[in-house]
Amino acid sequence: MSHVQIDADGRLRHLITLEGLERSHISGMLDRAVELREAFSATGSRPQLLAARTVVNLFFEPSTRTRSSFELAARRLGANVLNFDISGSSTSKGESLEDTLATLEAMQADAFIVRHKENGTPERLARHAQRAAILNAGDGNNAHPTQGLLDALTIRDRHPDLASLKVVICGDIRHSRVARSDVHVLKSLGVAEVRLCGPAALMPDASELQACPRFDSFDEAIEGCDAIIMLRLQKERMVAGLAGSESEYFQRFGLNAARLRRANSEAMVLHPGPMNRGVEIAPEVADGPQSCVLRQVANGIPVRMAVLATLLEG
Ligand code: NCD
Questions:
Q1: Distance from the alpha carbon of residue 243 to the mean position of ligand 1, in angstroms
Q2: What are the phi and psi torsion angles at 281 (to 5°)?
């Protein structure tokens, strides 16, 4: 695949998207995440793979878990972390993003973690970077590759053989970069079926994600599934408001305990957060025994350590 994230020797230089990324790259990062996680929990090991390196968080959209997870991951590997303050920066005085990048690269920054509301911003910066690695922490509705990787790891931990699994993603898929990265990583790892379910207005265009069967009934979509990925209604990305009330939405597309019983017994429940309880997920499911939400958060750190180590080593 020719993509800015892969160099001429086939090495991963940036992480912009999981679409089209070879399975060996994906499995390699997941295996490395498991090694780092096990070493840390056994001995508190913090391999200083990024000692003397500088990682810059460049977040142009709000974030709690992703930004802090990247920061903890980078620090656990010994890196210096700079949380760039956008509101107090020259970008708010009209400086282009490319100039901001060049300025920080001149200060020897080694990696930039980029979140931006516009699709393609991390890729644009990757084309412009001289030496630094660019890591996409979410661009518009396009991609959120580290979330895709941590979701895949959370599922793989329970089901090492992914090939026979059925997974459903339910909610506002149209506006979700998480859904797109999840589909790409799960299909690349060989998951048999990734179903998509949501109101017609919140489904992606028919030309997108064609390998995934679509459902407008959540009761049908959830039948026989091993993992259920719930998504938030991303109102900040909707052009028009949602037709109908939140309680109507919950009736049709919310995950409650009764609906969960239609899935396979012990099916995993995932949500990238932030959760809106009572809108897409009932509190008793969010806090119930099948919820993997906090396991996802915990896996975020070793996954991001593995990505940083892969991109910055060597
Ligand atoms: C998501 C995001 O920002 O893409 N959250 C996250 O990173 N864990 C999903 C969302 O905002 O709904």
A1: 22
A2: -145, 135
